[in-house]
Amino acid sequence: MDYDTMLRSLYEAFNRRDIDAALAGMSAEVDWPNGWEGGREHGQQAVRAYWTRQWAQLDPAVEPVSITDRTDGRVAVEVHQVVRDLQGEVLSDGRVVHVYELRNGLVVRMDIED
User: I need a labelling partner for 103 at 20 to 30 A (CA). Which of 2, 8, 86, 96 fits?
Assistant: First the structure.
C-alpha cells in the first residue's frame, strides 16, 4: 500500500500544530518515541500531552525528504528536522529517519533512527 500521501499529511499537520489531524492518522494505542525527554508514549492522549509539553518549550519542524517501503513491511521516512527555541534560535538542524509500522491505514508504532 502507498502511504506517501498519508504520512506527508501527518507531517504537515504536525508542522502547523494541528494535533487532532496528526492523531487522526494514528491508532488509539499508538506506540510513539519521546525523542525530546526520552522513553516512549503509549496511546493518542499520551502523544497529545507529549507534543503539548514539547511545543510549549520548542519549535520543531519536520519535512519529509524521502519515503521508502522496507522489506519488513515498515515505511522509512527520511526527514529534515529543524528544532528552534521559542525565540527562533536554531538548536539542531539535521536529518533523521522515522520508521513507521502501519496497520489498517493507521500508524501503530514509530521509531527514530539516526
Answer: 96
- Residue listed under C-alpha cell 501527518: 10
Q: Is the pLDDT of residue 57 over 80?
A: yes
Q: Is the pLDDT of residue 75 over 70?
A: yes
Joined together, the cell numbers standing for residue 13 give 499537520
Rounded Cα distance between 27 and 108, Å, is 5
CATH of the domain at 10: 3.10.450.50
Overall number of domains in the chain: 1
**Among candidates 94, 112, 102, which has minimal Cα distance to 41?**
112
- Count of C-beta atoms within a 10 Å radius of residue 100: 22
